[in-house]
Amino acid sequence: MARVLLFGRLSDLAGWREREIESPFLSALRTKLAKEDALLGEALGGPGVQVALDQVIVRGDAPLNARTEVAFLPPMSGG
Amino acid sequence: MSVRLTFDPFDAGALLTAFCKGRTEVGAVATFTGIARAEAGSTTVLELEAYPGFTEAEIDKVAGQAKVRFGIDDFLILHRVGRIAPGEAVVFVATAARHRREAFEACDFLMDYLKSQAPFWKKEHGPDGARWVEPRPEDHADLARWESR
User: What is the pTM for the complete model shown?
Assistant: First the structure.
């Protein structure tokens, strides 16, 4: 079970912030999320949305293990 | 070298005093304090979200690079998270260097980074509801100034 975290507008859109989801790959996780919530699926693939696995930014697909923390990070702005 | 997040309001003056204390060789300390704007009543609360652990680590990585690049001796970055009222400080950046140019430039660079790249998500609450704020084109242009140097 990967621990999936949504930040910023993504968590407002989905109506949740954190969930445990079973998935062997990041790509499969995206497909699973898009199947149950098309708008979220689209937003997760939108411009400027980055993914961190165990707090490290990744590009492309990657395997997930039972304890992987998957964070979807929309465009960032502080200050 | 310190990067910290806080849910509580802070006193920028007290932070500056503490940051300067005991320094006999740095010669220059530059600071920036960012304050939440009311936007003529359209923003009643500013809400800042971070990814605890990741946010500090990412800022620390970039600030560490800036320390080498600009040749500064030390830095302090304190950033609010949670709900912030207009008039309260959102962010405080202090840099210490032997001479002023390095201190000014490192402080300027760190703020440009924080505005458009640091892992924070910002929401403005007001009488017309809430909206997520993303970096403006000017914020990206501000950070891009440092690439050509």
Answer: 0.93
